[in-house]
């Protein structure tokens, strides 16, 4: 069997797990692939390198693939996702100072997203009355699940991101430092960076993404759209390796080894113990609170990996809320076409587990 070399970009997040496991546990090799994984420093770098084919495929924000396909954000690069890589797994974290202020202003249980949204609105109003600068919240990319989750949370308090609260873009590995330095007041990002901020003693987790939206669209395995048509063997082989990695990762006895792979210096470069707790859904919250147990905090199961064109409607609604675009019917069709359930079904039908 001829070995096919594929170069795949990824960002250091727990949700890159299936790409990492495809290589490190030998699933890619068994499919006849020599998989080269390249850790990137920002989502824009990753998108651009996929666009110019420095990468064959990439671990990518689903909304970023849709935005690139639509030509929003300065880059027009039609992309396609025959597989998703996860659902859920993000959280919103505030600095300890802002969290304590939020807790004081909360009229009810802070775990309720409406209660916390109104408390945030009260904080914004107080700062405005005192002549203080607006709060700054960060997301990891302009076209991301995280921007749209922040928008949904703020809307509960009658706030708008970018108007009542500043939005700053901070790549995932830089969020903890940005929070510690006071550059930002909080952020929404995928695991493990919320837990890392809590572990570093600089942040407190307010909400997990599942508090706002369960089974939330997140990362996909993105290809250039024309490559999905021109390179069916490569797409199928990598898809099969990912599906086998999913089946392996979902077995409880393999959680520790998954965390071990992800903790490597050229992967997430964080303690395996921290990553393992996240995979078990045991989240440290900070501010003196006990750990929180969330069943299926991040999903890697086969059902989660099937792309759903319906997710494009949520992404486009988030874009509209963020003032990024008001989609036409033609744009909606193009966005839905990024997510390819038929390609997933074809790959799955050929996999021998």
Description:
This protein has 353 residues and is α/β, with parallel strands linked by helices. α7 (145-155) crosses α16. It has helices at 17-24, 27-30, 43-51, 62-70, 96-105, 113-129, 145-155, 175-181, 193-199, 209-212, 225-230, 232-249, 255-262, 272-279, 302-305, 311-321, 329-336, 341-350; strands at residues 4-10, 33-39, 57-61, 79-84, 87-88, 90-95, 136-139, 166-169, 186-190, 203-208, 219-224, 282-283, 292-293, 298-299. A 5-stranded mixed sheet has the order 2-1-3-11-4, with helices on both faces. Strands 8-7-9-6-10 form a 5-stranded mixed sheet, with helices on both faces. The chain is 45% helix and 18% strand. It is globular, with a radius of gyration of 20 Å. The two termini are 19 Å apart. It contains 18 helices and 14 strands. The mean pLDDT is 97. It has 2 domains: 4-88 and 216-269 and 300-310 and 325-350, Periplasmic binding protein-like II (D-Maltodextrin-Binding Protein, domain 2); 90-212, D-Maltodextrin-Binding Protein, domain 2, CATH 3.40.190.10. This is NitT/TauT family transport system ATP-binding protein. Keywords: ATP-binding, Cell inner membrane, Cell membrane, Membrane, Nucleotide-binding, Transport. It is found in: Endomembrane system. GO terms for molecular function: ATP binding. InterPro entries: NrtA/CpmA_ABC-bd_dom.
